[in-house]
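User: Hi! I'm working on a homework problem where we have to compare a predicted structure to a textbook description. Could you give me the structure for the chain below?
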Amino acid sequence: MRIAIFGAGAVGCYLGGRLAAAGGDVVLIGRARVGAEVARGLVLTDYRGGRVETAPLPFTEGPEGARDAALVLVCVKSAASAEAARALRSHLAPDAVVVSFQNGLDNAQVLAEGLGRPVLRGMVGFNVAAQGAGGFHQGTQGGLHVADDPRLPVALFRRAGLALTRHADMAPVLRAKLMLNLNNAVNALSGLPLRAELSQRDFRRCLALAQEEWLGLCARAGMPLARLTPLPARMLPGVLRLPDPLFRALAGGMLRIDPLARSSMADDLAQGRATEIDWINGEVLRLARAQSLEAPVNRRLVALIGAGRRDWSAPALLGELSAALRRGTDGR
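Assistant: Happy to help. Predicted structure tokens:
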């Protein structure tokens, strides 16, 4: 089975490299800059100390690289989904399986509409950072989730250390992942690595406020969230608010993160690239509008990311979001 990775960024190169090391026939499709970085092969590491090296993988900048692929993993940023569909449409084999491994809720639908064919919803539950010179590092725990399909090469993913958790309905999984991804904006605004940010109670309280808006809107709409952590989603805001010693004792697994790992939104903001804020916190705003309600905390996070400041202290950011919540509650 030939596997095409469309969107060979950090996540795409990591998945492609792991699958190739396990025996997959992989081609990477991405920007010329990435092609130059991976020309000598990939070095894939993870937070547990694992290390995998690969020979150089086939690489192309054009969508024609997907022509003979039986499996196409789309890993582009959310804003590029429609463009990706237009690029790929004339190059896919009739029976190719397409999987969206992207943030957000509706990218698979956007791809399916543009491609004129079904697309499987998928989710990457861990953070990957580009290290340069072909190095890619998994900095957090988590796995791969995907809509169940008998054509998926489950054994290959398992050999690659990327076991697929398959679901009959991916919607609750994506909603739960989005809830966790609400931390991306908090992390970007803090300017800190993930572990340092989550180690501070006031930053966690910021995240709890954002998550509670999403949980309340989903509950009102009758939209359940899957359980992706040891605790049910509804309990996470309360745990995040615990004092630091108690949080470390009860939820230490949330801090099993590499000291330098950051959210992809933090990297995008630091490098002046467009972020995925509209496909993460923006989803909260869209669901609120559908219910004729407000989501003042997430609205303020969207505005702050747009302003671009990356040195918020935990107390200052908590004060900003708490004030937004008060204004929203007062109807102002």
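For your comparison, note the following. The domain at 173-329 is CATH 1.10.1040.10 (N-(1-d-carboxylethyl)-l-norvaline Dehydrogenase; domain 2). Residues 201-221 form the longest helix (21 residues). Good luck with the assignment!
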